[in-house]
Amino acid sequence: MNTKTLFDNTEVAFALKNDAQLERAYFLFKMISHQPLVRIGTAATNFALKANLPVEGLIRSTVFDHFCGGINEDDCLPVIDKMYGKGVSSVLDYSVEGKEEESTFDEARDKILKIVQFADEKEAMPIVVFKPTGFGRFYLYQKKGEGKLFTSDEQEEWNRVVARFDDVCKLAKEKDVEVLIDAEESWMQDAADELCEDMMQKYNTDKPIVYNTLQTYRWDRFDYLKGIHERAKAASFKVGFKIVRGAYMEKERDRADEKGYKSPICENKQATDDNFNNCMTYMLNHLDTISLFIGTHNEESCYLAMDIMQNLGIVKTDNNVWFGQLYGMSDHISFNLAEQGYNVAKYVPFGPVKDVMPYLIRRAEENTSVAGQTSRELNLLKQEKARRKL
C-alpha cells in the first residue's frame, strides 16, 4: 500500500461509527465550517449555561458526545474499550479549566491520581495528562517565570503546586504510567518548563515517565529542546516530550502587540510546520535519550514520522514513539495508523458538561481557524457515507 494514501481509507477510519453517528459527525463539522455560526453558537451556549437554561441535554447529545468521552471516568469506559478493540489507546483528559481556588487544585490532583490508578489497571490507558494551571494559579507561574520574588504566602502556595506535581509524578513512576504535562501561554511557561524539568530529573532516571509539551508555533522551542537534551545527558536523565503545533496563537500575538515585545509565534504556518518537523526529526534521531508523543492532526507530519522511523529502523511498537489525536477528530489518522501497528492514543476529554464547555468552544473555534481541517473531515465523512450506500 502506498503510504501516502494510508489516511484515505475511510472504512478503517470510521469502523466504530454507526450510520447515525456518521450523520451526526457530518452535521457537526458542517456547522463548524461556518465561522459566524460558531461565534453565534458559542455566545448562545455560554448565555444558556450561565442562565441555567435546560440546554445540557442538547449539548450532551451533539457536540459533547462527539468530542468528549463522558462526564466521569466510568462514563468513558465504553469509549475506551471500543477504541482499544481497534488498537487505539486512550489518554483521559480531565478538561475542567480556569479554576482559581486551592480546593479545586487539590480536587484536580486527586482526580489525576485516581486516573493514574485507573490507568494502572487498564491496558488501554498507558498515559495520563494534566495542565499546570489545573494544579496552581496562572499568576504564580507568571510571577515565578518573570523572576519576581514571592511573598511568603505565595511561596507557600507555590510549594503546594510543586507538591501536587510531585504526588502525581511519583505515583506514575510507581505504577509505570506515563504523564503528559500540557503547555499553556508563553508568559507562564518558563516556570512550568522548569518544574517539568525538575520532575524529569527526579523520575526519568531509567526511562521517561514525565513528558513536558513543546508548542512548536513558538520559534524558540527547537533551541529549548536542544538545551534540555544537553542538560539531561549531563545529569543522566531521560527527556520526554509531547510535541504539538500550539493552541493560543491569537492570544499570544495580541499580548505581544499590546505589551510591545517580539511575538513568540513563528511568522507563518510554513515556519511552524518546519519547526514542528525539525523538532520531531531531532527527537526521532535521539530515541536513546528522548521519548516523544507526536500530537498532530497534520497528515504530512505523520507521513514524515513514518518515513524517518522506517529509515532509522525504529519498530512501530517502540514505546518511545506515540502518535496522538483528539477524540472526535482525525479518525482517519488515528485508526489507520493503529491498523498499521503504530502506538496511537486518543486524547479523551471528560468532565461535567458545564465545566468542559470552555474546552469544547476552543475546539470549535480552532477548527474554524485551521484552514482545510474541517473540509478534510467533511470530505472523508461524505466519502464513507457514499461507500456505505454502495
Describe it for me?
This protein is an alpha/beta fold. It folds into two domains: 1-68 and 356-390, no CATH class; 70-350, TIM Barrel (Alpha-Beta Barrel), CATH 3.20.20.220. It has helices at residues 10-13, 19-32, 35-50, 56-67, 73-85, 102-121, 138-145, 152-175, 186-203, 221-235, 249-259, 269-284, 299-312, 331-339, 353-369, 373-389; strands at 88-94, 127-130, 178-181, 210-215, 239-244, 290-295, 321-326, 344-350. An eight-stranded parallel beta barrel has the order 1-2-3-4-5-6-7-8, surrounded by seven helices. Helix 10 links the parallel strand 4 and strand 5 (239-244). Helix 2 (19-32) runs antiparallel to helix 16. The two termini are 23 Å apart.
Keywords, separated by commas or semicolons:
single chain, 390 residues, alpha/beta, TIM Barrel, 8-stranded parallel beta barrel, 16 helices, 12% strand
